[in-house]
Design goal:
Elements: E1 8-11, H1 17-28, E2 32-37, H2 42-48, E3 52-56, H3 62-76, E4 81-84, H4 99-126, E5 132-136, H5 149-169, E6 175-181, H6 194-201, H7 212-223, E7 234-237, H8 249-253, H9 258-261
Parallel strand pairs: 1-2, 1-4, 2-3, 4-5, 5-6, 6-7
Helix pairs in contact: 1-7, 3-4, 4-5
Length: about 260
């Protein structure tokens, strides 16, 4: 498939995990990609060749987001599609966490994603591009878990952001949708203890984690013309987990969280 032939894409948090898989799939389908992360994605760009370009971007900085848009326009002339993968996480119960922990989670996941969307959309409107924006949230956006209150609320805000965009940006032909992954075998999740992984697997009907490529395929569908009538949709890709009854986080992590959650 060459759904992205001749298109220019921007991807945040692209050095590893789902973001990296999205970049790899985009390149395979003919796109030119500006791959960004807080430390850059030089190794990925070198591996994938001339159509992959690396840039350091911390989405908690609006100035760096604006620079990302400017660099894409200067190098490639336009942005057709954007994948906003970067996010922040915070562990703690509502009673046990602090306002600062929530502020950190929201500064990256919510404010950072909001700034990405509005600057990407402004660029598309100014350049007459009927583009697509895909934000990455989580299955926790729809189903909270003990100890992940700030994370869950931040992800829910990302889902609602796309719904709001569907009302405000449809007239410009700009589609904003959300991908909500379930447990995925990213470098971080690959390091969880065996007992913890088993507790996860017991709750996933298909009995395994998703691969980053499976999440990337879903993301590329949302960013392509195949989803041309989808505006503000939240696509949950979790192996059926959210349909099987969501457990208390304590059941997953056991003693690991006792001191943190009380």
């Amino acid at each position: 498939m060459n759904r992205y032939e001749g298109k220019v894409a921007v991807v945040t948090a692209s050095a590893a995990g789902i973001g990296r898989a999205i970049v790899e799939r985009l390149i395979a389908e003919g796109a030119t990609v500006l791959a960004t992360s807080r430390n850059g994605a030089d190794a990925l760009a070198e591996e994938l060749g001339a159509r992959c370009h690396s840039l350091k971007v911390d989405i908690s900085s609006e100035e760096q987001i604006i620079n990302m848009i400017d660099v894409a326009k200067e190098r490639f002339g336009k942005i057709d599609v954007a994948f906003n993968v970067a996010n922040g996480a915070s562990l703690g119960t509502i009673l046990g966490s602090t306002a600062e922990q929530w502020r950190v989670a929201f500064d990256v996941s919510v404010i950072g994603t909001f700034n990405c969307v509005r600057h990407e959309a402004r660029h598309m409107i100014e350049n007459g591009v009927k583009g697509a924006i895909v934000n990455v949230a989580s299955l926790n956006a729809e189903t909270p878990a003990r100890g992940l209150s700030a994370y869950s609320c931040a992800k829910a805000a990302i889902v609602m952001l796309a719904k709001a965009c569907s009302i405000e940006m449809a007239e410009y032909g700009i589609r904003v949708n959300t991908l909500s992954p379930g447990l995925t075998r990213t470098p971080v999740n690959s390091e969880i203890p065996e007992a913890m992984e088993k507790a996860f697997m017991d709750r996933i009907p298909v009995g395994r984690q998703a691969t980053p490529n499976e999440q990337a395929e879903a993301a590329l569908f949302l960013g392509s013309d195949q989803s041309s009538y989808m505006y503000g949709h939240n696509l949950v890709v979790d192996g059926g987990w959210s349909n099987s009854g969501y457990p208390d986080t304590r059941l997953w992590f056991g003693p690991f969280l006792d001191d943190k959650l009380g």
